[in-house]
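Q:
Just now I want nothing more than another pair of eyes on a protein record. Here is the record:
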Amino acid sequence: FEAPALGKGHGAARAPGRSLSACVPGTHLPATFGRLAGRYNAQSYGCLCSEVYSADAFHTRFKQEGVLSGKVAMDYRSCVLRPGGSKDAKGMVKLFLGCDPTQDAFLLSKGLQVEGCKLPAC
């Protein structure tokens, strides 16, 4: 009895041709309960943290001063890439940005409204 039930995806709603773990269009997989509650570990939070820093770096420096700006590229190289893992990530990002990093750009990139945010929507 198990094989027929498992073959039909018994007990789970699933679109034809999609796995049970596939991301549903219009949703944000990193924010789903199952992802937070048990299938992933601290590594997931590290990835999310790096997304926050990269969104802030892009909006604060690259988008404002130019994606192809040599000055921004050299600042990024000397403040973030050169020290690598030898320094605290938040400190390196703060040095590159010239201010404390915020999550505003990241939240905007996910389609969320941020009260008091000065950044243009992504």
